[in-house]
Write a structure and sequence with these properties.
- The complex is a heterodimer of chains A (800) and B (334).
- Helices cover 26% and strands 26% of the residues of chain A.
- In chain A, the strands form ten sheets. In chain A, strands 26-29-30-34-33-32-31 form a seven-stranded mixed sheet, sandwiched between helices. In chain A, strands 3, 4, 5, 6, 9 and 10 form a six-stranded antiparallel sheet that branches. In chain A, strands 13, 14, 20, 21 and 22 form a five-stranded antiparallel sheet that branches.
- In chain A, α9 packs across α10 and α15 packs across α18.
- Chain A is of the alpha+beta class and 800 residues long.
- With 334 residues, chain B is of the alpha+beta class.
- Chain B has two domains: 81 residues, no CATH class; 228 residues, BirA Bifunctional Protein, domain 2 (2-Layer Sandwich), CATH 3.30.930.
- Chain B is 41% helix and 19% strand.
- Chain B has twelve helices and nine strands.
- A seven-stranded mixed sheet of chain B has the order 1-4-5-9-8-7-6, with helices on both faces. A two-stranded antiparallel sheet of chain B has the order 2-3.
- The longest helix of chain B has 34 residues.
- The chains are: A alpha+beta (800), B alpha+beta (334).
C-alpha cells in the first residue's frame, strides 16, 4: 500500500523524516518495502529554452519550436501557438517519459517533422490544475534540469507490505493511527461537521436479505450533483497512491477508501429501480456487466447488491456498468457497508478479480467506521460540487458488532515471553489497543477497539505487548528442555550414504524440477500400460513443459545433459536423488524416492595427449553400480538385456533385487536422444530406493581381516568360441568349488589375427591362497592343471 | 718402486672414468680375473717371503681401496644417469581429475541441519504432495483466509496440491509424536512464481520445538545462534514483528547485510539488512488441530528458504542457476 508522507502528516504530527518513520513502522511490524518518489518515476521531465519558432504551412495548427536543454538543440511542436516565443523556458517531457495523466510520451512525426517530446501543461506535469496552458518558468531558471528540482517538489511515498491480518492499516488514517500507537505521537482524527449527518428523510428502501453476508449496510442519496473532473489536489492524491482519476464522484469514493480504509460505492440513483437497494445472494445464472466490461455469470455463492429486478454490483468486489455513475448522472446513492470477509473472498476468487474494495473487505474493515466514511464522502462532495438535496443516512445494522473480551493473565504473559514486563507497562500498552478492565493484580480483560479485528485471543495481546514494548528489548535466552535424542531415519541414512559413495566416485549431484514435460514420456517410448504413464497432472502449471509430476528422474537428467552439451560441456557424470510421483486411488499420491545416474562423453578429460580419449562405456556404468551395491551390501543382479523401451537392448540390464525389478542401467537409444535433441551418447541408470530400504541394513559391517599368508597366482590364456560369455565361464569355475581358489579375474580378451574368425583369446588369472599356511607350488600346480583341463573340455577351448 | 708407479697410473686412469662402461672396462683391466692387479697378486707366490709379505699387504690395500672407490664411483654415475635430459615436455598440465561434489543446496541443507542436530533436533521428512488440510487448514489458514494469497499454490488435477511450505511437517510431526519434541524438516516446496528471485520449486527448512516452558526469548536465542553459526560469529540480527497465521506472536529475522555490514548496498536494497526467516510461537489453533493440551504445552516454529541462504552466502543473484545444473556452477562448490 502506498502512503504519501504529505497525506499522512494530515493525521499525525510527524516528528521525524520519512526514512525514520519507515524504520519505526518496519520495526513495529508494518514493513516499509520502499520509499518511492513518484515524480522521479515519471522519467525525464526537464526545463528547456525555446530558441526559435516557425510556422511551417504543412503543419497547419502546429508551431515548430527549436529548443535546447543546454546540451543539444532539437525540435518540438505544439498547439500552444499563443504562448510560445523565443527565450521562453518551459517544461518538456522527453520521449519514454510518463506524464501525470498516465500519458506515455513518444517521438512524434508529422509530415517529416519530428517532435522529440511534448511541452507540459501544469496538469500533465502534476503540479497544478491547468490543462490548456503551458508550464512556464521564470527567465532565470536553469535549463536541462528536472522540473521537480526547479519547483522543489518532493513527494515521498511509503510503500507498505501490510500483512493480511492488519486490515486496519490499509488506509492513510490507519497508518497514522498505527504510527501513533508505536510512537505516542499525537493523532489528529478526521472531524466531520455535524451538518453532514442531517438531511431529508430517505425516500427509498434498503433491505438486507442475507445477514450472514452483510452485517451492516448504510447509504444515503445526494441529489443534483454535477459529475465532472475532480479538482487537482484530489487527483494528485489518488495519483500518489497509484489510482487513476475517473470523475469527481468515483474519485471521492476512492479517496475515502484510501483515507479511511472503508470501501464505498456510488450508484446512479435514477437507475436503481424503485429506489430499492437489496443485499442478497445472487440467483444461479443471473448476470451482471461489471465495470471492467465483462459480463459475469453469478452463482448462489455471490453476494450482490440488487434493485427491484436485477443485480447491480457484486457486493464489495466490483461495481456494475448499468448503475454506475456516468457524466449524465445527477442523483447518486452512496453505499458504505460491512460485508462478511469470507463472502467477498469467495466471489473475488471465483471471478478472479481483486479490487481495492475486495482487498480491504477480505482483510476486515472497521464495523464502526462505516458511517464515518459515508459522512466524509458527503463532506467532500459538498466541497467540490453543488448539491440540491441529500437524505439522512439509512443504517441497516441488524446485529451490532460485539467485540471480544480477552482475558490475559500475568503468568501466561511471562511464560510465553520468557521474561517479565512490569505489569504497569503492560496496562499502558493495552490501553492503547482497547478498553481494559483490570480484574486483579494477575488478570486484565481487554476489549479491543472495533478496528482491531485481528485481536481475539490472549496470544494476540501478547504479540501486541511484545511488539509495542519492542522485540529488540526482549532478552535472548536458550531453551531449557529434557534431553531427547534420536538418530537419523533410515531413509535419510541411505540417501546420505549414497551421496557419499557417489561423490567419492566422482559424481556431481544435480537437482532438477519435480515437474516435467508430458512429451518427454512419449519420447522415452513408454507403452500405454507402463507405470510411468500413471502420472499426476498439475491443474495450473507454469507452462506446458512443466505440467506433470515426474514419474522418472530420466527427463530431468537428460535435460541437464542437453543444457550442458549445448554449452560445450561434453562430458558429465551426474546423479540425482529425488522423488517421483504416481497417481494412487487410495492416497493423494504415491511418492517414491529414486536414484538416477547419467554418464556422458569421456571418462576423463579430453587432454590425454599421447593416449586415446576414453569414452564412457557400459562397463563404466556397471562398475559404478557394482561398487555402490558392494558398499551397501546389496545383492542386486544385472539381468541382461533390459526391457526398458528407451535403452539399447544389447547394451543394457534390468536391476533385480530378490526377484523384483528395482531399476535399469544401459545405453540410451540414439533415436530417443535425437528426439530429446541431444547429439551425443549417454548411459543412464535409475534405481527405486524404497524396496532397497526394506532390504538394506545400514548397521556396521564386520571388517575383513587382511590375510596372514601370501597368495599365488596362475594364468590361463585359451581360445574359445566368440559366443562364449565370460560370465558363464566364471560361473562354471565358481560352481567347481576349487580348493584354495580365492578369486578368478578375466584379464584380457582378444579377437582378431592371428586368432581365427569366430574365436577369441581369453586370459584368466586364478588366485590361490590358504588361510593357515603358504601354499606349495606343486600343490597349486596340480589343482590348476586339473582346473584347466575341466575348463578346456567344458568350453571346447584350446590353450594358447 | 714399481707399485708406486702402478698406483699413480691406476688413480690417474680412475679419475678419467665417465660412465658405467668405462667403469666396467677399468674394473676388468685391473681387478678382473685377468686384471693387472689380480695377476700381480697371483705372482706374489713366486716372491721371497719378506717381499711377498710387504708387497702383498700393499697390493691388497690397493685392491680394497680401489674396490671401495669403484663402488662410490658407480653410485655416483648411477645417480647422474637418472638426472639426464629425458626430452619430456614438463610444461604439460597435470592429468585432471574430477572430484565428485554435492549440489550447493544439499550442502546448505546439510550445514543448517547439522546446526540444529547439535541442539538435539530430530530430522524428519514428509510428502511433497499435500492435502489442503495439512498445507493450510490445520495451520490456521482456512479456505477464505487472505493469507492464502501469500503463497501462490500449484494445484493438482486430483484435488491435492504441491506443498507451498514445509510447515505441514509441523502438523505431521506433532501427530506422530508426543511432546516434548524438537524437529527440523528440510525439503522441496512449490509456488507458481518464476523469475530471477523466485523458482517454482525451491527448498525450505522448518523447525519446531514444543515443550512446557519454551518461550519467545528462547526462540530469539535459538535463531541468533543459528544465524551466527551460519553467517559467522559477528553476524548482527534483528527481529521484526510479522504475521503468519500459524504463529502468534510472529516475527521475521533479518541479518546484517553480509556484503556491506549494515551500511546499505545493492544486495540489501540499501537497507543494510537481509530478511532471512519467519518464525513465531505456535498458534493455539495449530495445537488444537493436533490435540495438544494448550494449557501445558507451548512452543515455537520457524521456516526459512535454503536458496535464500545459499544466495546470500555465495552471493548468487539468479535463483535459476541452482536448477540449470551447469557443470561449472556445480563444480565451483567444492
Amino acid at each position: 500500500m502506498r502512503v504519501p508522507i504529505s497525506w499522512l502528516s494530515e493525521f499525525i504530527d510527524l516528528r521525524l523524516g520519512p526514512e525514520e518513520v519507515a524504520e519505526i513502522l518496519t520495526m513495529g511490524g508494518i514493513e516499509v518495502e520502499n520509499i518511492d518518489e513518484p515524480y522521479k518515476n515519471l522519467g525525464e521531465l526537464i526545463t528547456v529554452e525555446i530558441l526559435e519558432i516557425s510556422f511551417p504551412e504543412d503543419l497547419k495548427d502546429l508551431v515548430l519550436c527549436k529548443v535546447t536543454d543546454g546540451k543539444e538543440v532539437f525540435n518540438v511542436f505544439t498547439t500552444a501557438k499563443e504562448e510560445v516565443r523565443p527565450g521562453l523556458i518551459v517544461g518538456l517531457a522527453k520521449p519514454e517519459s510518463l506524464t501525470f495523466g498516465y500519458h506515455k510520451v513518444e517521438v512524434k512525426t508529422v509530415k517529416g517533422y519530428k517532435s522529440l517530446g511534448t511541452f507540459l501543461s501544469p496538469y500533465e506535469a502534476g503540479v497544478g490544475e491547468e490543462k490548456s496552458k503551458l508550464l512556464i518558468f521564470t527567465p532565470d531558471t536553469p535549463i536541462g534540469v528536472s522540473i521537480y528540482e526547479v519547483l522543489n517538489l518532493k513527494e515521498k511515498v511509503l510503500e507498505l507490505a501490510v500483512t493480511p491480518n492488519r486490515g486496519d492499516v490499509l488506509s492513510i488514517f490507519g497508518v497514522a493511527r498505527e504510527l501513533s500507537l508505536l510512537t505516542n505521537w499525537e493523532l489528529n482524527p478526521p472531524k466531520i461537521n455535524p451538518f453532514y449527518s442531517q438531511g431529508e428523510d430517505f425516500l427509498g428502501k434498503i433491505e438486507i436479505l442475507d445477514p450472514e453476508g452483510c452485517f451492516r449496510y448504510a447509504g444515503r442519496y445526494i441529489k443534483g450533483i454535477e459529475v465532472k473532473d475532480s479538482p487537482f489536489y484530489l487527483q494528485k492524491r489518488l495519483w500518489l497512491c497509484g489510482l487513476r482519476p475517473i470523475n469527481n464522484i468515483v474519485d471521492i469514493t476512492n479517496y475515502v477508501l484510501l483515507e479511511l480504509g472503508q470501501p464505498l460505492h456510488a450508484f446512479d440513483w435514477e437507475k436503481v429501480e424503485n429506489q430499492t437497494v437489496i443485499v442478497r445472494k445472487a440467483k444461479k445464472g443471473e448476470k451482471v456487466l461489471t465495470l471492467d466490461g465483462i459480463e459475469r455469470i453469478l452463482s448462489e455463492e455471490d453476494l450482490v447488491i440488487a434493485d427491484f429486478s436485477k443485480p447491480m454490483v457484486i457486493a464489495g468486489v466490483i461495481g456494475g456498468e448499468t448503475t454506475g455513475v456516468s457524466s449524465e448522472t445527477k442523483n447518486i446513492f452512496i453505499e458504505s457497508a460491512w460485508f462478511n470477509p469470507k463472502y467477498i473472498r469467495r466471489s473475488s476468487q471465483r471471478h478472479k478479480i481483486t479490487t481495492e474494495s475486495s482487498y480491504r473487505f477480505e482483510r476486515k474493515v472497521d464495523p464502526e467506521g462505516v458511517i464515518l466514511a459515508l459522512l466524509r464522502a458527503t463532506e467532500l462532495i459538498f466541497k467540490i460540487t453543488s448539491v440540491e438535496t441529500f437524505s439522512k443516512v439509512l443504517d441497516v445494522y441488524p446485529k451490532v458488532f460485539e467485540p471480544p473480551k480477552i482475558l490475559l493473565t500475568k503468568t501466561k504473559l511471562k511464560k510465553y515471553l520468557g521474561f517479565e514486563i512490569p505489569f504497569k507497562e503492560v496496562e499502558e500498552i493495552l490501553k492503547r489497543i482497547g478498553n481494559i478492565d483490570k480484574k486483579s493484580e494477575e488478570e486484565i480483560e481487554v476489549i479491543p477497539f472495533s478496528y482491531r479485528q485481528d485481536l481475539s485471543i490472549p496470544e494476540d495481546l501478547i504479540e501486541e505487548i511484545a511488539r509495542i514494548y519492542g522485540y529488540e528489548k526482549i532478552p535472548i535466552t536458550l531453551p531449557k528442555s529434557v534431553l531427547k535424542a534420536k538418530g537419523l531415519a533410515k531413509e535419510l541414512k541411505l540417501e546420505k550414504k549414497l551421496k557419499e559413495v557417489l561423490t567419492a566416485l566422482g559424481f556431481l549431484e544435480v537437482i532438477t524440477y519435480s515437474f516435467i514435460d508430458p512429451k518427454s514420456l512419449n519420447k522415452l517410448n513408454f507403452s500405454d500400460e507402463d507405470f510411468r504413464n500413471n502420472f499426476i497432472e498439475l491443474a495450473n502449471p507454469l507452462s506446458a513443459n512443466l505440467s506433470i509430476m515426474r514419474t522418472t528422474l530420466l527427463p530431468g537428467l537428460i535435460e541437464v545433459a542437453c543444457y550442458n552439451f549445448f554449452r560445450e560441456i561434453n562430458s558429465l557424470k551426474i546423479f540425482e536423488i529425488g522423488k517421483v510421483f504416481f497417481r494412487d486411488s487410495q492416497t493423494l499420491a504415491q511418492e517414491i524416492t529414486n536414484l538416477g545416474i547419467l554418464l556422458m562423453g569421456n571418462r576423463g578429460r579430453e587432454e590425454v595427449w599421447y593416449e586415446e580419449v576414453q569414452r564412457f562405456d557400459l562397463f563404466d556404468l556397471k562398475g559404478y553400480l557394482e561398487e555402490l551395491f558392494l558398499v551397501l551390501n546389496l545383492p542386486i543382479q544385472f539381468k541382461l538385456n533390459s526391457s526398458e523401451p528407451f535403452l539399447k537392448k544389447g547394451l543394457s540390464y534390468d536391476l533385480i533385487l530378490e526377484g523384483h525389478k528395482v531399476g535399469y542401467a544401459g545405453e540410451m537409444k540414439n533415436l530417443v536422444l535425437k528426439e530429446f535433441d541431444l547429439k551425443t551418447q549417454v548411459l543412464v541408470a535409475e534405481i527405486i530406493l524404497d524396496p532397497i530400504l526394506e532390504k538394506i541394513s545400514l548397521e556396521t559391517k564386520a571388517f575383513k581381516r587382511p590375510p596372514k599368508f601370501p597368495s599365488t597366482f596362475r594364468d590361463l590364456t585359451c581360445i574359445v568360441n566368440k559366443n562364449i560369455k565370460i560370465g558363464e565361464m566364471l560361473e562354471y569355475i565358481e560352481e567347481l568349488k576349487v580348493p584354495y581358489l580365492e578369486e578368478v579375474r578375466c584379464l584380457k580378451i582378444y579377437e582378431g589375427p592371428p586368432i581365427a574368425k569366430g574365436e577369441k583369446s581369453v586370459s584368466l588369472r586364478f588366485i590361490y591362497r590358504a588361510e593357515d599356511r603358504t601354499l606349495r607350488d606343486e600343490e597349486v600346480n596340480s589343482i590348476q592343471e586339473d582346473l584347466v583341463q575341466k575348463i578346456l573340455i567344458k568350453f571346447l577351448a584350446k590353450p594358447r | 718402486m714399481e707399485i708406486e708407479k702402478l698406483r699413480e697410473e691406476i688413480f690417474e686412469e680412475f679419475s678419467l672414468i665417465k660412465n658405467l662402461s668405462e667403469l666396467e672396462a677399468f674394473r676388468v683391466k685391473y681387478l678382473g680375473k685377468k686384471g693387472l692387479l689380480t695377476s700381480y697378486l697371483k705372482e706374489l707366490k713366486n716372491l721371497p717371503l719378506e717381499e711377498r709379505k710387504s708387497l702383498g699387504r700393499e697390493l691388497n690395500e690397493l685392491k680394497e681401496k680401489l674396490e671401495e672407490l669403484l663402488k662410490q664411483k658407480e653410485r655416483e654415475i648411477l645417480f647422474q644417469e637418472e638426472d639426464r635430459e629425458l626430452e619430456i615436455d614438463l610444461t604439460l598440465t597435470g592429468k585432471k581429475r574430477d572430484l565428485g561434489n554435492l549440489h550447493p543446496l544439499t550442502q546448505v541443507i546439510e550445514e543448517l541441519s547439522q546446526i540444529f542436530i547439535r541442539l538435539g533436533f530430530e530430522v524428519v521428512t514428509g510428502p511433497e504432495i499435500e492435502s489442503d488440510y495439512y498445507n493450510f487448514t490445520a495451520l490456521n489458514i482456512p479456505e477464505w483466509h487472505p493469507a492464502r494469497d501469500m503463497q501462490a499454490t500449484f494445484y493438482l488435477k486430483n484435488g491435492a496440491l504441491l506443498r507451498t511450505h514445509t510447515s505441514p511437517m509441523q502438523i505431521r510431526a506433532m501427530l506422530e509424536r508426543t511432546p516434548p519434541l524438537r524437529i527440523i524438516a528440510p525439503g522441496k516446496v512449490y509456488r507458481c512464481d518464476a523469475d530471477i528471485r523466485h523458482s517454482p520449486m525451491f527448498h525450505q527448512i522448518e523447525g519446531l520445538m514444543v515443550d512446557e516452558e519454551v518461550s519467545f526469548s528462547d526462540l530469539k536465542g535459538i535463531l541468533t545462534y543459528f544465524a551466527q553459526e551460519t553467517f559467522g560469529e559477528k553476524t548482527k540480527v534483528r527481529f521484526r514483528p510479522s504475521y503468519f497465521p500459524f504463529t502468534e506472536p510472529s516475527l521475521e529475522m533479518d541479518i546484517g547485510c553480509v556484503i556491506c555490514e549494515t551500511k546499505g548496498c545493492r544486495v540489501c536494497g540499501g537497507s543494510g539488512w537481509l530478511e532471512i526467516l519467519g518464525a513465531g510461537m505456535v498458534h493455539p489453533e495449530v495445537f488444537k488441530a493436533v490435540n495438544y493440551d494448550i494449557s501445558k504445552w507451548q512452543g515455537f516454529a520457524f521456516g526459512l528458504g535454503i536458496e535464500r541462504v545459499a544466495m546470500i552466502k555465495y552471493e548468487i543473484e539468479d535463483i535459476r542457476l541452482f536448477f540449470e545444473n551447469h557443470f561449472l556452477f556445480l563444480n565451483s562448490f567444492k
